[in-house]
Amino acid sequence: MSYRKVAIRYATSFLESSIEKNNLDRAADDMQVVFTAIKSSSLLRRFLENPVVKSEQKKSVLKKIFEKHVSPDTIKFIEFVVDKNREIALKDIAEKFLELKDEYSGIARIEIKSAFELSGEQKKMIAQRFESILNKKIVAVFLVDEKVIGGFVAKVKDTVYDASIAHQLELLRQQLLKGSLSLN
Question: How far apart are CA 101 and CA 12, in angstroms?
């Protein structure tokens, strides 16, 4: 279940607080820890979703889990979220916080898939090209996907840039079909 509206509101609040306190980078590192922990642990997710477990117990357990890994400000924020009975949205809040932090910092995360391992120079050229297209600093993850036939496929949020040969051939096929239909 998505808690998008709740996540936006709480993440925005924590982002503004972190900016005000001048500890945005630390808060982002903390939220990455929280997001990863909740995403990777079905046991933790079930614990947070359990309505039988009291808020005080949830705060205590979460504090024990995270106190050695995150700042006191983040612990306070997590406790605040639990006090408001929004702990079930904590993963979504952390994820949205990271997105908002990137947006605030002018960073775009991009996933680039190619059929083979790209050279350092190729990676650099692609990253520079996307920096100029998006007018943002790029954090790129390069993956090898044998389904990509030549070229690459890049994904930024919900936008896909398909520079693969398969895509170019499909575009050519569609143009040829259009042309043959108009000739009749």
Answer: 9
Strand partners, 140: 110
- Give yes or no for a contact between 150 and 178, defined as CB atoms under 8 angstroms apart: no
- CB-neighbour burial class of residue 10 (10 A; exposed 0-12, middle 13-18, buried 19+): buried
Domain that includes residue 169, residue range: 106-183
What pTM, to 2 d.p., does this model score? 0.78
Helix (H, G, I), strand (E, B) or coil at 153: strand
User: What are the tens digits of pLDDT across the range 45-56?
Assistant: 999 999 999 999
Residue that finishes a domain, picked among 42, 70, 103:
103
Residues 131 and 78 in one domain: no
**179 or 76: which leads in pLDDT:** 76
pLDDT tens figures, 139-177 = 999 999 888 888 888 998 888 888 888 777 887 888 877
Q: Are 127 and 96 in contact (CB under 8 A)?
A: no
For tokens 């995150």, name the residue: 70
